[in-house]
């Protein structure tokens, strides 16, 4: 089933092809892989679009905000000389032969020590493991800072942190209170958004009121 989203005042002729499928008695649709709308199966499209129109200014702000984190480099081949992003900076990849396999930042370069420096598959594995380890460290640092924004930080303690390479989401909060984060994006907004789900498991008015209060900027 497909449909076209009507033009919204703060969107410049935004049109999207919507793919629907049924899951847990709800229709879920992705719009250009940017916007996810969840509504009851029997909800009229006009009602859904009206809800989207009311949230249009907020949606536009989020799209503009997250657009700056979209990939700015082509797919990596993991060969010496190409550049890789880390915390907003570009680092040139240097692969060297070494008995101890390790990845580190050194003098503006991302240095990969490998048993087989000419094997790009091994280089890729080492680099991705390094990214994942660094993401775990950075996320835990940012989580502590984000919790301090709440009146009672101890009430916003997730049961655990899972860092993954997610394809369609920046993060989520499981029913058991486990914080799932995308290793490619380390920003406070995502963490704050998910921590608010520890109190509200939906995106209702109370949820956004809390989010706006603890993160007004």
Keywords:
Zincin-like; 4-stranded mixed sheet; 217 residues; 3 domains; disordered N terminus; elongated; 32% helix; 3-stranded antiparallel sheet; alpha+beta
Short description:
The protein is an alpha+beta fold and 217 residues long. The protein has helices at residues 45-54, 56-67, 120-147, 188-196, 205-214; strands spanning 18-23, 26-31, 35-40, 83-86, 89-97, 102-106, 109-114, 160-164, 171-173, 178-182.
Strand order of the largest sheet: 4-5-7-6
- Major β-sheet profile: 4 strands, mixed
Which range best describes the helical content: under 10%, 10-25%, 25-40%, 40-55%, 55-70% or over 70%?
A: 25-40%
Number of helices: 5
Describe, in plain words, how this protein is organized in 3D.
Helices cover 32% and strands 25% of the residues. With 217 residues, the chain is an alpha+beta fold. The protein has 3 domains: 50 residues, no CATH class; 51 residues, no CATH class; 75 residues, 2-Layer Sandwich (Zincin-like). Helix 3 crosses helix 4. The radius of gyration is 21 Å and the shape is elongated. The chain starts with 17 loop residues before the first strand and ends with a helix. 13% of the residues are buried. The N terminus is likely disordered.
